[in-house]
Design goal:
This protein has one domain: Metal Transport, Frataxin, Chain A (2-Layer Sandwich). By secondary structure, it is of the alpha+beta class. It has helices at 2-7, 43-50, 56-76; strands at 11-16, 19-23, 31-34.
Length: 97
Amino acid sequence: MVRLLESNQWRLVRQRGSHRAFRPPVKPIVVTVPGNWNDDLPIGTFKSILRKGATLPETKRNIREAIQLHLEAMREVGEAIPDAITDVDFVELEPVS
């Protein structure tokens, strides 16, 4: 996730322990991400990052990149990659202003 944010010009604004706070180039928001590669990304943080997508294609691209980077990080630290499964569901979202 950290590499995804940095590759999209998000900048690190502070770090406390293993958690890093990033700010995007155009919006006055901050997203905090666990700093260790083997930490699970809290679902609230994941949802927060997804809300930053301006369009549905951008949000889908963010999801794809986040999953790819997470798998790369798992490989780097020697964690086993689970078997791929498909689970489709719908999630209702509140409008973001």
